[in-house]
Amino acid sequence: METRSFLHVGADCGQQPLPSHYRGWQCVSFDINPCQDADMVGDVRNMAPIADEVYDAVYLCHILNYFHPWELPQVLSEAARITKNGGFVEARVPHLEEVCRAVLDGHPMDAPLYRGHQGPITPQNLIHGRIGRTRNSSTIMAHRTSFTPGLLRLELQGAGLKVELLGKCSDQRYDLFAIGRKSETQAVDPIDELLSAVTPIA
User: Which of 24, 122, 151, 152 lies 20 to 30 Å from 69 when distance is taken between CA atoms?
Assistant: First the structure.
């Protein structure tokens, strides 16, 4: 049986823990930052060096939130292009509604909600990104789009993907998770394998 492969896109792609449903798959890492020691270096908005329909899946973990709204169609169209028919694009982003709910319940904007692989994560980090507090601070890690379930669904559908799962991540309530399938034929995996990773939203 041929080993399935997926493209793992994003900063710290060598450090992020991977979802269990990728166990046994071949992981190819992709990052714009050459310092991350990724297998491939480039811009996810233009992955022209990668041929069409190469990967069984593309995993975008906390990537889409770094792009302006007008850039999202290009990012997701590129992800869909390099995904095999029957494969899927998986997106994970900060869940704006859950973060706002925590703040409205009294959680301070600058107090940690949880500890991620980069350290403590606050509501401020999830909404605006990990940016400095001085005029000369870099804005490269600033968030440019915030996501609700409805917006994430629309963006995936706009790239021609059929949204089969959408909801809160069961391992992190402040993350929103979606699976967009490329075509309905010859699916590379039963979607039931992924159900344990998400609390579905109707």
Answer: 122
Two structure tokens written together for 82: 């390099």
What is the number of structural domains in the chain? Answer: 1
Amino acid letter, residue 192: D
- Domain-located, residue 124: no
d(CA 143, CA 123): 12
Domain with residue 46: its CATH number is 3.40.50.150
Give the Cα separation of 150 and 142 in Å (integer).
22
Q: Assess if residue 180 is contained within a domain.
A: yes
Q: Using the structure block, give the residue that is written with the tokens 């007008």.
A: 70
Phi, psi of 154 (to 5 degrees): -60, -40
**What was the pLDDT predicted at 183?**
83
Q: Helix or strand or coil: residue 164? A: strand
Is 146 in contact with 65 (CB distance < 8 Å)? yes
Tens of pLDDT along 4-21?
A: 999 999 856 566 778 888
Integer Cα distance of 202 and 193 in angstroms = 19
Residue 65 forms part of a structural domain: yes
Tell me the range of 33-47, 71-85, 125-139 where mean pLDDT is highest.
71-85
117 contact partners, CB below 8 Å, separation of at least 6? 12, 15, 16, 17
The CA distance from 174 to 22, in Å, is 21
Residues 56 and 7 sit within 8 Å (Cβ to Cβ)? no
The Cα–Cα gap between 130 and 95 comes to 16
